[in-house]
Amino acid sequence: MSAKTLYDKIWNDHLVADNGDGTSLIYIDRHLVHEVTSPQAFEGLALAGRKVRAPKRTLAVVDHNVPTTDRSQGIADPESALQVATMAQNAADFGIEYFNELDQRQGVVHIVGPEQGFTLPGMTIVCGDSHTSTHGAFGALAHGIGTSEVEHVLATQTLIQSKAKNMLVTVNGKMGEGVTAKDIILAVIGEMGTAGGTGHVIEFAGEAIEALSMEGRMTVCNMTIEGGARAGLIAPDEKTFAYVKDRPRAPKGKEFDLARAYWKTLVSDEG
């Protein structure tokens, strides 16, 4: 059996069908939606009389149009207020859990998933935002999608994709004082250029990557798209498992032990 990369393994585990034209249909484990790229998608569902296929695999979070200061007086900008109100209505109409602007769990959509244990290793995760690649820090295949694709995932829990190429970026050595995860990814992009990762999913490995906190790894994967890549991945390890354990939506007890055993297989094979 030929060696497989982490990306290959996740892709194969979620492959529903090969369309024979260079595209495939893949299953989506988690769908995060926010107020900017979802209104037209929900409108399309309503016009077609469709329901959300898997509401429990979908989580709505308002984050682009809410103030970072006091929210008790509402949102002053009328366009922003309309988008937030529309998100709330769509979530209610389609039976999706929604973290509104006053919910303590609300935050940047890419961070809410990890904080809640909604993001787990080996999953496919999409959101109508390019920086969805953040979740790759957990060994999940995550990337942004367009509004029409948001509607497709809401309706079918699947997505039509062309498989990307593999790229491995190894960062060895120890970081000097004052050097951060952002310095690492900026250095990588500086080496390969802003289009160097086009058509690829990049897996990050090496001593420097392993030493990063989960937040640091999220930074690296978040900015992978600035190098043109489709997504960034980091193989899950004990640091990942410790972060995920006891999160509200993470597996518990024996289920966590079984999940952890599977997560340990999510590494690229030698060769």
Descriptive tags:
Aconitase, domain 3; 2 domains; 10 helices; alpha/beta; Aconitase, Domain 2; 5-stranded parallel beta sheet; 271 residues
Question: How would you portray this structure in words?
Answer:
With 271 residues, the protein is an alpha/beta fold. The chain has two domains: 6-162, Aconitase, domain 3; 165-260, Aconitase, Domain 2. It has ten helices and eleven strands. The protein has helices at 6-14, 39-48, 78-94, 109-116, 147-156, 181-192, 207-211, 214-222, 238-244, 254-263; strands at residues 15-18, 24-27, 30-33, 58-61, 97-99, 124-127, 141-144, 158-161, 165-170, 200-205, 231-233. A five-stranded parallel beta sheet has the order 5-4-3-6-7, sandwiched between helices. The longest helix is centred in the N-terminal third of the chain and has 17 residues, at 78-94. The chain is globular.
Mind describing the biggest β-sheet?
5 strands, parallel
CATH architecture of the largest domain: 2-Layer Sandwich
**Superfamily at the CATH H level of the largest domain?**
Aconitase, domain 3
Based on Cα principal axes, name the global outline. Answer: globular
Query: What is the CA-atom radius of gyration, in angstroms?
Result: 19 Å
* Lateral arrangement of strands in the main beta sheet: 5-4-3-6-7
What structural class is derived from the secondary structure elements? alpha/beta
Into how many domains do the coordinates divide?
2
Measured as a percent range, the helix fraction is 25-40%
Under CATH at level 1, the class of the largest domain stands as Alpha Beta
Averaged pLDDT: 97
Note the beta-strand portion: 15-25%
What's the helix count?
A: 10
- Give helix and strand order, one letter per element, not per position: HEEEHEHEHEEHEEHEHHEHH
Q: What is the end-to-end distance?
A: 12 Å
